[in-house]
Amino acid sequence: MLKTLYLAGGCFWGTQKYFDLLRGVVSTEVGYANGGTTAPTYEDVKHGSGHAETVKVTFDDSILPAETLLAHYFLTVDPVSVDRQGGDSGHQYRTGVYYDDVSLLPAIRAAFAKTEAEIGAKPATELLPLENFFPAEEYHQKYLEKNPGGYCHLPESLFENAKGRVPFSREKE
């Protein structure tokens, strides 16, 4: 059964690469979500349109349940950071889980509760209905595939984790 979540995790290049590696993810698309304008460009987003860099993740819930998908998501972000991930700062780099299917809310809430228990603090990650999503320009799509060695705020060990090769722990980084 195919489901979709919209995940804002800082720079969308690395976030897309990570989710593309997971078994059960059917497709990803980078774009801009939950901002105040229609059809923003990257320049608009950079200059304060209010959108978050977001990855639209379509997944097979029977292979990769939403709660497991979100456990992976929370590995890719600093859940207590506000408007910053890695070396990127600004409102466009906030973290957020946006949904357009309310049937996913129990799994989303469970993932947030589990993360809160693990980190001992309430995540700063937004949990909101999707207001809007606009695909990013083509050069942003699968950016790290097109530009191997391009900038990414996520450590390489995290990608190895997504491939199932090594377990990931924040303490190792």
Description:
- The structure is a single chain.
- The protein has 173 residues and is of the alpha+beta class.
- The chain has a single domain (2-172), classed as 2-Layer Sandwich (Peptide Methionine Sulfoxide Reductase, Chain A), CATH 3.30.1060.
- The chain is built from 6 helices and 8 strands.
- The chain has helices at 12-20, 42-46, 66-76, 105-119, 143-146, 156-162, and strands at residues 2-9, 25-33, 52-60, 84-85, 88-89, 95-99, 126-129, 133-135.
- A 6-stranded mixed beta sheet has the order 7-6-1-3-2-8, with helices on one face. It has a two-stranded antiparallel ribbon with strand order 4-5.
- Strand 6 (95-99), helix 4 (105-119) and strand 7 form a beta-alpha-beta unit.
- The protein is globular, with a radius of gyration of 15 Å.
- The model has no long low-confidence stretch (mean pLDDT 94).
Mind sketching the topology for me?
Layout: E1 2-9, H1 12-20, E2 25-33, H2 42-46, E3 52-60, H3 66-76, E4 84-85, E5 88-89, E6 95-99, H4 105-119, E7 126-129, E8 133-135, H5 143-146, H6 156-162
Parallel strand pairs: 6-7
Antiparallel strand pairs: 1-3, 1-6, 2-3, 2-8, 4-5
Characterize this entry briefly.
With 173 residues, the protein is α+β, with helices and mostly antiparallel strands. It has helices at residues 12-20, 42-46, 66-76, 105-119, 143-146, 156-162, and strands at residues 2-9, 25-33, 52-60, 84-85, 88-89, 95-99, 126-129, 133-135. It is globular.
